Structure formats: structure tokens, C-alpha cells
Amino acid sequence: MNPVRLMLVDDQELVRTGFAMVLDSCEDLAVVAQAGDGEAALAELGRTAVDVVLMDVRMPRLDGIAATRRVVAEHPGVRVLVLTTFDLDESVTEAIAAGASGFLLKDVSPQDLIEAVRTVHRGDSVVDPVSTRRLLRATRPLLSAPEPAAAEPSAEATAALAGLTPREQEVLLLVGNGRSNAEIQADLVVSEATVKTHIGHLLAKTQCRDRVQLVALAFRAGLVS
């Protein structure tokens, strides 16, 4: 199996060196590129094949949030894992809004960093526990508000669902309701491998980058409120 190709983007060379030592110690991971700011990262992506970008937030020229937004728009197959020293509410929400598949603080343990990279590459999302609490605080007003009716399906979302089988639409509905693979397996009485196959087909057919985008599609399609 080819290793997951990684790019490290941070304006501190010492930080990049430390992360590279940790990640390159794994046979299934390989740091293939590094950059000191967002502009350099985008230029490097134009000439180097990368699967996952580990992106700092605060950098000169082009910061990590703006760079993440451009990476997601210009390189749809690349996933971004944002890492920052600063535990700020706006950093978490802005990174996720920009299209990041994960958000971690830089004091993460080496093993947790490795697992986070693998998780993001699989198409799932990861947010460190402290930032998760901040996200929950930010969304609490929405959670306590009366539940809205499902939105009218958009034409784009309806077209995306047109090529799905009834079973795939059922899986999409469960994903949209926040069900994990294990929970979907129990709901449908199928194997975990079958669930993963359905998720893979959904991602391919709908051209969604990861599970987060599948949830967004379920909302746009009016499957969930």
C-alpha cells in the first residue's frame, strides 16, 4: 500500500521538523512537502501530489484559514487538518467553515496526531476534545431552539441523489442524522465492511469530500432538518 502523502505548513521550521519526525516514523505515512506559509503551500500543491495537509493557523502572507479555503476549492481531493497553538472559539469555527476535515491543538500527543491524520485521510473528521466543547457551546442556542422543518430540497442536491440506490439513500439519511458506522451496521443488520462500502459509494457518487459534506448534502436534500 502506498503511504499517505503529507504536507506540513507552518512558519516555524522547528515545528515542521518535529511533526515530520513523528509522522515519517510510520510506514503508512510520508511527509512529501513542507511550506512556511499559505502562499508557499498553494504553490507546492501545484507541483506535488499530496493527500493530507497539516495546516497552521497563524502565518505570514496567507494565514491557515484562508489557505484552507483555497486548498479545498482548488484541490478537492486534498484534505486539510488544521493545527494551532491557540485554543480560540473563532479558530475552530472558521477552520471548519473553510472546509477543514479536522482541528487539533499543537500539544496533541504523537500517537493522537498520527491517528488524526489517518482518520482524516479515511474521509472522517476529527476535532480535539477541548475544541469540541467550544463548538458545542457555540451551537447550544441552535440545539435549544425549536426544531425547524426540513428545508426544501435544492436542485443540486436532488441531482446528487438521483444516482443513488434506495439502500444508499437510506445510509445517507442515517449519516445525516449523525449515526456512526457501528450504529448504521446495527440499524441495517449488515457487516461493518458493507457499511464502509456504502459510504465509499456515496462519497464517489455525490462527489463529497468526506462525511461532513455528506451530512451537509442530507440537509440540502431535505432528508434531515
The secondary-structure class comes to alpha/beta
How are the strands ordered across the major sheet? 2-1-3-4-5-6
Largest sheet: 6 strands, parallel
* C-alpha geometry: globular
What string gives the helices and strands in order? EHEHEHEHEHEHHHHHH
Portion in helices:
40-55%
Mean pLDDT over the residues: 84
Rg for CA atoms: 18 Å
Provide the fold topology.
Blueprint: E1 4-9, H1 13-24, E2 29-35, H2 38-45, E3 52-56, H3 64-74, E4 79-84, H4 89-98, E5 102-105, H5 110-122, E6 126-127, H6 129-144, H7 155-162, H8 166-176, H9 181-188, H10 192-206, H11 211-220
Parallel strand pairs: 1-2, 1-3, 3-4, 4-5, 5-6
Helix pairs in contact: 2-3, 3-4, 8-10, 8-11, 9-10
Protein name: Response regulator transcription factor
Modified residues (4-aspartylphosphate): 56
Domain Response regulatory: 5-121
